[in-house]
Description:
Blueprint lengths: L5 H4 L3 H33 L6 H29 L3 H30 L10 H12 L12 H49 L16
Helix pairs in contact: 2-4, 3-4, 3-6, 4-5, 4-6
Amino acid sequence: MMSVSDDRMEPGPRFADERQPRRLVLMAIVRVVVLTVFVMAAYFAVPVGQDADGLGVTVLVIGAVGFIGALVYQVRQILDSPAPQLRAAEALATTAVMVIVVFAFTYACMSVTDAASFSEPITKVNGLYFTVTVLATVGFGDIAARTDAARLVVTGQMLLDLLIVGVVVKVLIGASRIGVERRRSEDATARATQLGGRSPVDAPEPPSTSNP
Length: 212
């Protein structure tokens, strides 16, 4: 009677390795979605009251410090991640979300403080819309900065957008490459250790030198 092989009875390491990339991708998507939902919920929940000017400046400063801290943290996570390229893509997505929310909130605060700051009042919804158009360099022209202060902040966002495209992306890609090389080196070392630690029974038999 034919017996079922052990490879069919239980999933081996090969099957676990095939599932790992899908699991890492799923975890990255979940983290980005959770962060986006949390940040958006906080964005719409925080009221823009009478002290909108001071609140906007505070959020802008905290956002700048948080941006630098998050970038350093993400680079370290990329270097240590089993999937550096995926982690770099996740870092870029979360960075874009943070930049959009911080500037959208700042624009909304400026509009409450001075209604003439923009060509139309900036609510939280069209604040997101205006920030994304600036980030994407679309420039529809339906909303425009009118005062010097508003133009300075919008110029700051444009410079930060250029920084993200020109520097941050390169930093994340460079970190992902270093991480990939590190993973390859660790895998090669692990394989060499496994081969060096085989028992004599598992070692291949030397070719026979006896004459037929």
